[in-house]
Amino acid sequence: MSLLEVRGITMRFGGLTAVDDVSFNVEQGQIFAVIGPNGAGKTTLFNAITGVYDPSEGSVRFRGSPVRLEPDVRLGLRAALVAVLAGLSSFMVINIQELWTVGIAANYMLDQPFPWGKAAGDVLDAARAVPFAWGVLPALLGAGLGAGTVAALWQRSRRTPDLIARAGLARTFQNIRLFTDLSLIENVLVGMDSRMTSGFWTNLLRLPAFARERAWTEREALELLEFVGLAERAHEAAGSLPYGHRRRLEIARALASKPAVLLLDEPAAGMNPSEVVELMELIRRVRDRGVTVILIEHHMKLVMGISDRIVVLQYGKLIGQGAPAQIQADRRCIEAYLGTEGEG
Amino acid sequence: MRRVPLPILVYFVVMAVLPLFMGSSGQFYDAFQTIFVFSLVGLGLNVVTGFTGLLNLGMAAFMAIGAYTFAILTSDIYPFQIGFWWGTLATVAFGALAGFLLGAPTLGLKGDYLAIVTMGFGEITLDVLKNLDAVTKGTQGINPLPRPTFGSWSLDLQEERGWYWLLLSFVLLAVLAVRRLERSRSGRAWLSIREDALASECMGIPPKRTKMVAFATGSALAALGGALFAALLSSTGEPASYDFQVSILALCIVIVGGMGSVAGTLVGAVVMVGLNSLVLVKLADWAGAAGFGSASNVLVSPNNWKYLIFGLALILVVRLKPDGLLPPRLEGSSG
């Protein structure tokens, strides 16, 4: 069983087929590259894998399982509970004037003890006397709406990026997307969110668990910044970083969730040759931490230098895959891509 | 331990001692009590709009929900009468619940669409309060409301100074709560959604749940503001006191003060509400004394220029200091 199995992924946008029936396997510990000319569908493929898009066809299996929510008893219970509550409240809302008058206004006298039992009985009697159109209908409608909302929300959240990230696939973006107003360390801490356990009340009341978690997360975040060589700027705003450093921060942020797979979308774009060499080194060190790396890249020296396996896309189709030497020897791949590009 | 930022410290020290120098000027206390109420609403909106980046144009509705919940639970025209403190607590909880209920189906909406929904929610809330007269007493409002009690002593409505400090302590509590959340996992998740929703989701932050918690927190604070507003007047006032203007005032406070800045929100409330209830009132007094006042000419009264001046203040801030008077400073960089 491969770590990541991509099976017949097809991505259509209206009449345009951006990715057409692409399949490949990524093994544990590999550096795996996806190459192809601009517009070949590489980033779309990444988006389909990480849940940003829902594939029109095909499936992605990670550690043998499709990463998505499956219906279970809890979902059923939740839908039922919401339906009952929604039904009850829509009944109440429609009839509140009368119920309130019968139950509260009619029974309450200033400075007298309030007869709770009698009031409850009066409200029940009044509720029973409510005609069908004002009673059962709104209740049914509310219940249907409530259950429908739960079902719709669930359906739409079956395969979302956050779910996939939590399962262990982290990514960076082609057009770097940092949280620019947050500091470097905060960026990394957001990446670490999936490993944190403190809840709202722990944070609000500063329970002991808060301090414990803050201690280890900040220590680890600093270690990660150290790993990418940005530790001394930990408390500066991410927006103040020069371009090359931003890539490194994005990688540190993605690594913070301790992912099994790291997807890098054109990490070397806009870098000068010496930065590319540093980046290659960094990617190797990421792999040595036990993280499988999948990267999209145009920079051939980098791709050929570090990849264990390469797939080539053209017009959304997979036209070749193999080790770097095989790709370099494959005539179709050269024609499609290498032959038309001047860079080294 | 991290230090409290200087502006917040200065604000609370100045506010705490200010009454000692103000004698018993009714205008001063009226103005500052309103300022504190709106500081709470502003802090709530700051969580929703400033931290999480969700434009909410219906804060007044949550204020109204708070005021009426508090009134129904505590007024002696109804049998519940759970008292000021329990009433306040229940109101905060109910405000959060109301935020959840509005948020659950709508927070998937993007940008302006959410703003339209919250605006509509504000209008619907007003209409419901106006027309549900068996419960809300229609345009009359619910009164009287109980005074806060401390043991056997209770705070009289005429005790201007006592109310001032009481409200100030609520603001202090709210600031503490908001800052604690901001500097924790919860707050970072909110900020990351504001900064880049897609990147945040790809880092494993569940967008819907995170937004809902922000929305509920903001609504709870606005409801608290509403409840104290009602307690202060011993009446909810008529539903129209929670109209769209109030939501806009809350938004102005956050924008003028600085989106996402707690200290900014406090200053924004002082500036915007102070402009309204101190500067304009003084101007009106002065105009009256100088013989400019005239019932027949509405243009002479500074009060009628209110929204023009609000608009001008907003334009000036957005033009000259787009990040607000006290923009959020990066954690750790300077304090």
Question: Would you give an account of this structure?
Answer:
The complex is a heterodimer of chains A (344) and B (335). With 344 residues, chain A is α/β, with parallel strands linked by helices. Chain A is 49% helix and 17% strand. Chain A contains 13 helices and ten strands. A six-stranded mixed sheet of chain A has the order 6-7-8-3-9-10, with helices on both faces. In chain A, strands 2-1-4-5 form a four-stranded antiparallel sheet, with helices on one face. In chain A, a hairpin with a 2-residue loop joins β4 and β5 (65-66). The longest helix of chain A is centred in the first third of the chain and has 33 residues, at 73-105. Chain B has 335 residues and is mainly α. Chain B is built from 13 helices and two strands, in the order ααααααββααααααα. A two-stranded antiparallel sheet of chain B has the order 1-2. In chain B, β1 (149-150) and β2 (153-154) form a beta hairpin. In chain B, α2 packs antiparallel against α12 (262-289), α3 (59-74) packs parallel to α5 (112-131) and α11 packs across α12. Chain B starts with 5 loop residues before the first helix and ends in a 15-residue tail after the last helix. Residues 331-335 of chain B have low confidence and may be disordered. At the A-B interface, α2, α4, α5, α6 and α7 of A face α6, α7, α8, α9 and α10 of B.
